[in-house]
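During the practical work, I selected for study one protein's amino acid sequence and its backbone structure tokens, as given directly below:
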Amino acid sequence: MRIDLKEKNHFLAVFETFFNQPLNRPIDGISIDSRNIKKNDLFIAIKGKNFDGNDFVDQALKDGASYTLSTYKNESRYHLLVENLHIFLKELLRSWLQRYDGKIVGITGSNGKTTTKDLIAHFLKLKFKVEKTLGNHNTSISVPLSILSFSLDSEIYVLELGANKVGDIEYLSSIVKPDYGVITSIAAAHLDGFGSIENIEKEKKSLLKHSIKKYNFNELKPNILSINFKDHKSNIFLKNLEIAAHVTNDIFKDSNFPDLNGDLLINCLESFKMPHGRGGILSLNKIKIIDDSYNANPESVKAALDHLNCFKQYRKFFVFGDMKELGDKEESYHAEVGKYAIGKADIFLTVGRLAENAQSNSNNFALSLHFSDNFSLLEKLNELLTDGDIVLIKGSRSMRLDQLINELKDVK
């Protein structure tokens, strides 16, 4: 991840207060990836599972970085040392935000947070200057960096707050202190990090502890929209839309603007683009693909299958890859998906060690096959697909099912 700084002078002024030395070099951007360093960047070296950014500090300086920063010492006089990176970023961002007079919308949830975030930001742009976290930049590192890339004169920041373990949402929400805190849903996801659904619920709800206005749509029903959509829309998208409209209308009301509804909402939706891999429908000649390849947990897979079931006039394919980080019950969660797919898909194709558990009910489909790799599955899929078919592709990001979609685009 790399960001450009729009508020360079303010950032440098805040940044200098943390070090007992003058910083005479300019800082135009911040990067945590040594491969995309630009001249006058600050390179923050992070030690991860697969790479240690400290190994690339010297190279980053050679490539034009003004300064490097980490929790490890380096002989360069342009290397800055901090004891704890998360604490440093937390305090840095708190100081930076003291100059920000706008509102903050914080969004978390097991499903739908990216689409809901994008919808809220899209709607708010009708009346406000808005900035939002991009893509999946929702971690304890990427959220602070995203905010540092924003303009101080923006009126609303819309932030997606993600969590893989206990403490992540508490940490982020305690920094940004949202004016509007939104929980889209609570479900089994990242159980390896959380341990139980109860811990997930507790963690998500920690957002509300630090928010002024609180919206827990796991318990609260969003306002119903009286709109007839011409195209097929999934139930989960409709819920995200209702949540986004509900929160947006409250923000409009607080600023004495009229509600977003009717033709205004429909016209606004026409220019909205679904986030990549989160349920958008691709038309390839006379074949349709529901691209839900970005991520998966049991609840989101079932919602995607409900969406697939709406396409009655099509022969329905369900391509299912492993759902990761589900803890001790991972095999039973996958078997449950296999049962749920009965009657909603005609042809069931699975890939991955865990997804094979969904094959126990294979006799309930016209055809059900398991594959050890994406390439083998793709070959069979290309062989089977004909005009009038629709394919739902769903699995965890690490399964890289988006590769199937890219290949199908080239072939079809």
Q: What stands out?
A: The longest strand covers residues 315-321.
